[in-house]
Amino acid sequence: MQDKFCMHYYISGLVQGVCFRSFTQSEAKKLGMTGWVRNLPDGGVEVVACGRQEDIKTLEEWLRHGPSRAKVSDFTSEKKEWEDHTDFLIL
Fold first, then answer.
1. One of 21, 52, 64, 69 is an active-site residue; which one?
2. What structural domains and CATH numbers belong to the chain?
3. Whether the model pTM is above 0.90
4. What is the pLDDT of residues 51-82, one digit of tens each?
């Protein structure tokens, strides 16, 4: 179980109105991850992703760019304690 952990991300830039949440959910599900993604009032996106370390790294690389219409200008991340989620949801 040490190979599994969660990460908390904040992404800003042109990340709303470009299907960022939907594409994030799709990418996370392809990787077998759980967690959630949501829009923030400040125009950013927040993500909690839980899974295997190599899958977290793959998703993180994707989040740094997002879908083709997105323009990520700032990206922060922090490791979190394991959270039990049953799916990857758009909140």
1. 21
2. 4-80 (3.30.70.100)
3. yes
4. 999 999 999 999 999 999 999 999 999 999 88
